[in-house]
User: Which sequence fits this backbone?
């Protein structure tokens, strides 16, 4: 009985996957994104769903079947341009992304959607992506908020000391001085609700390439 359990345990551990010296599977054997690109868009239509479709078209990602995921920026993930990224998407392809989305049919109501990124200086460590969607915020404020979220999550993971009560502008400088953080940025889309009461949708996305 013990021998059979030991054999089963060993088989389950490897399961045909190449293991590295670290004890984790070799990266190429795992479902881990190799690249990411960022995009944003806005759409306006009398139908809510159609306004979302138009926002995706504006973002250049409408031909994909999108699967939203949570917010880990993978180790050794390369950041590429939107132009380059769009060329790598086939019609109907299942594409994983981190997406922020907001909509309204209230005339002149301000909406925003933003994605924040914080990358560690060590390419073998993971970073963070954050999504934020809001009403009544400018693009600048929404973008900075998302960037702040991502940077704060990364800082806590890396053990960087900071005061969470200070303004983002102060913490941003502190994070930039920290050698463990390589880069923070955001992509954001804002819009005002249509004066005619049509549906307006904004999206911001980090699109993964495997």
Assistant:
């Amino acid at each position: 009985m013990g021998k059979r359990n030991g054999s089963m345990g060993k088989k389950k551990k490897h399961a045909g996957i190449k293991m590295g010296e670290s004890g984790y599977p070799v990266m190429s054997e795992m479902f881990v994104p190799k690249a990411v690109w960022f995009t944003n868009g806005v759409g306006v239509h009398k139908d809510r769903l159609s306004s979302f479709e138009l926002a995706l078209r504006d973002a250049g990602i409408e031909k994909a079947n999108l699967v939203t995921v949570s917010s880990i920026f993978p180790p050794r993930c390369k950041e590429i341009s939107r132009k380059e990224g769009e060329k790598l998407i086939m019609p109907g392809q299942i594409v994983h992304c981190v997406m922020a989305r907001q909509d309204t049919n209230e005339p002149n109501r301000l909406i925003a959607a933003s994605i924040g990124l914080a990358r560690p200086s060590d390419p073998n460590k993971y970073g963070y992506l954050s999504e934020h969607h809001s009403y009544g915020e400018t693009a600048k404020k929404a973008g900075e908020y998302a960037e702040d979220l991502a940077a704060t999550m990364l800082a806590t993971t890396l053990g960087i000391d900071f005061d969470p009560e200070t303004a983002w502008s102060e913490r941003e400088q502190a994070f930039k001085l920290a050698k463990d953080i390589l880069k923070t940025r955001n992509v954001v889309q804002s819009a005002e609700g249509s004066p005619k009461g049509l549906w307006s949708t904004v999206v911001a996305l980090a699109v993964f390439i495997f």
Remarks:
- Confidence is low (pLDDT under 50) at residues 1-12.
- The two ends are 42 Å apart (CA to CA).
